[in-house]
Each structure stands twice: as structure tokens, then as C-alpha cells.
Automatic annotation (TrEMBL):
The lineage of its organism: Eukaryota, Viridiplantae, Streptophyta, Embryophyta, Tracheophyta. GO terms for cellular component: SCF ubiquitin ligase complex. It comes from the Eukaryota. InterPro entries: Leu-rich_rpt_Cys-con_subtyp, LRR_dom_sf. Coiled coil: none annotated. This is Uncharacterized protein. It comes from Papaver atlanticum. GO terms for biological process: SCF-dependent proteasomal ubiquitin-dependent protein catabolic process.
Length: 189
């Protein structure tokens, strides 16, 4: 009870500061209501990093993206309830997304790339196995990509990688991690 009070007290004090441009919340038991409160108060946010946000869902991610019009970078790590649907209609200002150990589904990748502004995309570790169709969806939804990092791509056929080359004209680096975490790196330029 005392720990919860301290957390709430610190969190409420945090909300008094509205000029934050970057926040990094590690191992906080944030709820959707908490993240929405941050989005309402800190309208100038440019970068948000959430680690172990196990209570955060797609609903508050959507709220954050729609209300923080300067948000360019979003890093999510161990956010078990994020499937990707919260990114549907995300703004073009979101240029950098990392999502590791989230519950993304291949069907929801189209929502993640729906904004069209992503330049840096990392979907690694703890994501479902990528298939050719998913890679094609990424290539069509992210024409501005400069760097792409993916894991579990063993089932991707050559035509999937060809679409990356055809559609992502600005791509400079491609990182592909296998099941054990070993990476292959391709530098395009």
C-alpha cells in the first residue's frame, strides 16, 4: 500500500509538469488511464519510451498518438497487451517505432504502418513469425524507411525482400535477427 501511494504521489507530481518533450517510464505499472493523463497534460511530447507497461493497451496508444501531435518516437518494450491496432490512423509525425516483446499480430502490422511516415522501424523479439505478406505490407506502408529491424523472418520468401527494395527507396540498413538473436545486416547505400 505504501509503495502504491509513493508511486501515485510521484506520478501526480509528474503530471504537474506539462513541458516534457521526452519521457522514459521504466517498470511503472501504468494503466491506460495513466497514459491518457500523460497525453492530455504533456502535449509537447516528442519521444516516449515505455518498458514493462504490462497494463497498457492499444486504446491508450491510440489516445497518445492522436493527442500528442509532436510525437515522433515511440519505444515499447514488454508491453504485453499491445497488439498493434492502436496505431490505426497514426500521424505521419511518428517516424521512429520500436516494439519489442509486445503481442503484435501480423494482421495488425497494417495498422502500425498506416501513418506512412515511419523512417525507423524495429519489430523484434517476442513478435510473431513474419511471413512474405507481412513484409510486403511493411514495404508498401513505409516508403520512407531508412532503417528496418525485424526478427523471426525464416518464412519470408524472396519476393517479400524484393518489395522492400522496390518500395523503400531510402532504406540504408536492414537488420534481420534469427530465433537465437543473431543478426544479419545489409547496408544498402
Amino acid at each position: 500500500m505504501v509503495q502504491e501511494y509513493r508511486y501515485r504521489s510521484v506520478f501526480n507530481d509528474f503530471l504537474l509538469v506539462t513541458s516534457f518533450k521526452k519521457i522514459r517510464l521504466l517498470h511503472f505499472d501504468l494503466t491506460d488511464k495513466d497514459l491518457e493523463a500523460i497525453a492530455k497534460r504533456c502535449l509537447l511530447l516528442e519521444k516516449v519510451e515505455l518498458t514493462c507497461g504490462r497494463l497498457i493497451t492499444d486504446s491508450s496508444i491510440s489516445f497518445l498518438l492522436q493527442n500528442c501531435c509532436h510525437l515522433g518516437t515511440l519505444h515499447l518494450h514488454y508491453c504485453d497487451n499491445i497488439t498493434g491496432i492502436g496505431f490505426l490512423g497514426c500521424p505521419e509525425t511518428l517516424t521512429n517505432l520500436k516494439a519489442d516483446y509486445c503481442k503484435l499480430t501480423p494482421e495488425r502490422i497494417s495498422a502500425i504502418v498506416s501513418g506512412g511516415g515511419l523512417e525507423y522501424l524495429r519489430l523484434c523479439r517476442g513478435v510473431p513469425k513474419f511471413k512474405t505478406e507481412t513484409i510486403m505490407t511493411i514495404s508498401k506502408g513505409c516508403p520512407l524507411l531508412k532503417e528496418l529491424s525485424l526478427s523471426d523472418c525464416e518464412e519470408v520468401e524472396p519476393e517479400g525482400w524484393q518489395t522492400i527494395g522496390q518500395n523503400c527507396k531510402y532504406l540504408e540498413r536492414l537488420y534481420v535477427f534469427d530465433e537465437e538473436g543473431y543478426e544479419s545486416f545489409v547496408q544498402w547505400k
